[in-house]
Design a protein that fits this description.
mainly alpha, 2 domains, two-stranded antiparallel sheet, 7 helices
Length: 154
Amino acid sequence: MKQFAVSLAAIVTISVAPAAFGASHGDDMTMMSPGIVIPSMDSSRGRLLFASKGCVVCHSINGVGGVDASMLDAEFMDLPMNPFDFAARMWRGAPFMIEAQEDELGYQIDLTGQELADIIAFVHDPDEQEKFSESDIPEELEELMEHQEEEAHD
């Protein structure tokens, strides 16, 4: 009887999990299999995050941004794109990126899975990248980048 109760509880949990998941996480994610979700990828949100989170301090798109790390123009990205491969490349570079972030920004950039998904979408979307300009860079980061550029010329 105890085994039946455990099995029934598991069946109920599995059958209501997608509905409960949607209620708690919104409709921006796709349930791939029980317990695994893939967030939607929004390149326009990614454009704003690329600048506001500070990626632009080291990376450039359309010639806008830093030169300390690789350019992330869509024309240089692999297509079709596997976002897990992109994240794996970031993971391999994490020690260097963390050190650079702490040196350049004074802190380590913190990204949620959704934010990373949106940034990856932006990095692979040439149409959204055409919209990217210096006006997307927050003033405090723009001042930091200008200061760093001045120091490099001294």
